[in-house]
Amino acid sequence: MATVAVVVLASLALFVAVADDVLDGGGLISHDQGVLHWFVAHRSAWLVDTARLVSTFAGFVGLLVVSVGVGLALWLRRWRSVVVAAPLVALLLAETASTVAKSAFGRPRPPLHLREVHVSLAAFPSSHAAEAAACLLATALTLSLTVAHRRWVRVMLLVVALVLTASVGISRLVLAVHWLSDVVAGWALGTATALSVVTVLWWFGARQAARP
To answer: Is the pTM of this model over 0.90?
Structure first.
């Protein structure tokens, strides 16, 4: 529990630090232009196509299907604890938080002529990165707490979730629809959301199970 609290606080601190950089233009923001131009200079047609595919399937609708599917599968396996709803709850909270932050900061996206897909909302933070981190990490943790009994399986679930989350964020950089700081802030926000939701729902489910 202490480790979870430390990671949540660290993730929130990182998000706040990047948000502060967005406001004053220092810190991580100073690397945004360089990173953007590096990705643009090194992307190829197949990489852009792959990034589009990743962004499409790891968008809100795709993650919604994953979270509902995992929750339903666990429910049908007689896991009645509220923790089975963690992936869905984490996704919805991350989507809401990122949308509110976008409205509050109103940060412009990279130049239009560099973008490979159409986007409409503001840049900060990346909703794709936040939602992917929230949903995929919550899914890995939920499966680890329920059906994954072997340690190596739990480790693999976490590794897969982290790799997929990283891929989603990188896809947004390849497509030039986000700055590096947007993606980092999204990852931080999603990580804090996933850990917090899973911890709270697991605790609440344990309390329910302990009642006579």
So the answer is: yes
